Backbone:
């Protein structure tokens, strides 16, 4: 198991209204996180729902990595966006992951043409 330096990352739990941007501290390599992101997105592409998405903290801790929740913010509020909040609260976090829960938005154009 290869660990990396602890750093802050973001995880967006979807792009629907009410979705959240979560900030975590982890030492898991980007490759491991990218694979979890891919698996999580494929679940929605295959028509499943949130209860089928792996709990990232559980998966990573089981593999021996740190994955600690630091903070979170709803994507859109009356006061601004999660992007505004992230910049004000943490500054620049370059490593970002998204669990895309609306695959039709990205696959829809292809699906509609068939």
Residues:
């Amino acid at each position: 198991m290869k660990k990396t330096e602890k750093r802050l990352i973001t995880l967006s739990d979807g792009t629907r209204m009410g979705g959240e941007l979560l900030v975590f501290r982890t030492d898991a390599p980007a490759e491991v996180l990218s694979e979890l992101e891919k698996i999580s997105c494929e679940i929605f592409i295959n028509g499943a729902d949130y209860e089928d998405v792996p709990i990232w903290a559980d998966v990573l801790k089981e593999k021996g990595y740190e994955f600690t929740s630091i903070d979170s913010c709803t994507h859109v509020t009356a006061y601004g966006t999660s992007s505004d909040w992230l910049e004000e609260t943490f500054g620049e976090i370059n490593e970002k992951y998204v669990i895309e829960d609306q695959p039709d938005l990205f696959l829809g154009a292809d699906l509609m043409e068939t």
Summary: The chain has one domain: 7-113. The helical segments are 30-45, 56-62, 82-90, 103-113. The mean pLDDT is 85.
